[in-house]
Structures are given as C-alpha cells and as structure tokens.
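Materials and Methods. Structural model of DNA lyase. The 232-residue sequence of DNA lyase from Pelagivirga sediminicola was retrieved and submitted for structure prediction as follows.
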Amino acid sequence: MIYRADQIQAAVASICPEIRRRIECTVPAVSERALWWDLSSCILSSQVPYPLAAAVADVLDRSELLLTQKAHTQREKYILEILSEPVNVQGRLRKYRFPSAKASQLAMTHKQIHKTRDSLSELLEEFTTAEDARKWLVDNAPGLGPKQASMFLRNVGLSYDLAILDRHVLEYMELLGLNSAHSRSVQSISGYVDTEVVLRAHARDSDCPVGILDWAIWIVMRVIKQPKEKLI
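The predicted structure was written out as tokens:
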C-alpha cells in the first residue's frame, strides 16, 4: 500500500491526544534506583536491541554497583563481568555486544555524576532547563549522545519538550520537507538541536509537545514500514 505524506501526517496527529492522555495518567518512577536503571539502559541500548539492553540493566540493578556513592576502583571490572555473561531475553540466552566499551562508559558516568553531586537525583534537580540537563549528560556521560540523553530525560518525566530524533522521525521530517537528506548530522549536539528546533516548530503548529509528537511519529512510521508497504 502506498501512503502520501499528508496521510502520514494525519495519522500522526490522530494519535497524539491518546498519547497525551496516557502520559497524564502515568507517574514516572523517580527513586535513585529507578533513575540509574533508566540511565544505564539508555547507555546500553545504543546499537543494541532495547530488550537486550533492558535485561542487562536489570542484572546491573540487582548488583547495586551503580547505587553506591563511594569510590570503587574495581567498579568497571565488576560491571564488565556482568556485561560479559549471557542474559535471558524473552526466554532466550543472549550475549551483550559491547561489554568492554559499555563497562568503561558506565563506570566513568558514575564517577562523573558523583564527582559533581551526591546522587543522580540531586544532579538532575539542579538544572533549570531540560536542555541544560541534556548538555551536561552529553558532555559528561560517555556513551550518551543527544538522542539517548533526551530519551533518558523523557523516561524519568523531566521533560516532554525534547525530541528523540531516531531514523523514523528523521525519515518523517524528510518526507514532509522539514529536513533534507543532506541536513547536518544529529550526532553532534549542535546539529541535533538545529533539527530539534525545526521539529519543535512543526509540533507547535500541530498543537502538540514535541516529545509527544515524535512518539506518535515513531508509532506511525513503524507501522507503515511493515513488509509490502511503501512510502512516497
């Protein structure tokens, strides 16, 4: 089946109100433990299927390696041991793809956060804007790019005014003429923010927060990309 750009835009707009209602009925978990679970899963999910990243985050959570404040010279080593072991993902044993790199990133992120404040929750409370929080995370948490940092801040309920610019959202923007295939890379924070500004203006025209609009885009674009369906 062939979909026109205006049909896709209408489908996105039609589900935004339902997403907004669901969010309003959801109370995000904001305990220190929940914050670290969300942060670690976002770091672990880069180039890795989310169910696998979440399963590894569960094992890390049970170890409590990221919950202690005191310095731990062996923290990276113990995280690496956990990431090197197979985990159960939907009934199958799976191995994590980047154990060494992610163990180093998680240990360094923990060190940077506790060098700045006594806890992750205390750190997040000091930022006056979500943009400031995201920039700090991108600058100080290895393995967190602007997309993963935006996802973390949304997951913990800090802001729905940050966009998660994944490939589905970027394809939607290109389809509607909001973003060309030759636009600046969203890997850098400056390029990401430039693209986010464009999507935020589109969201404003649709009377929808950008963090809800891109969620709706993600849902619609995944559905229409099913086999035997084609975009124009």
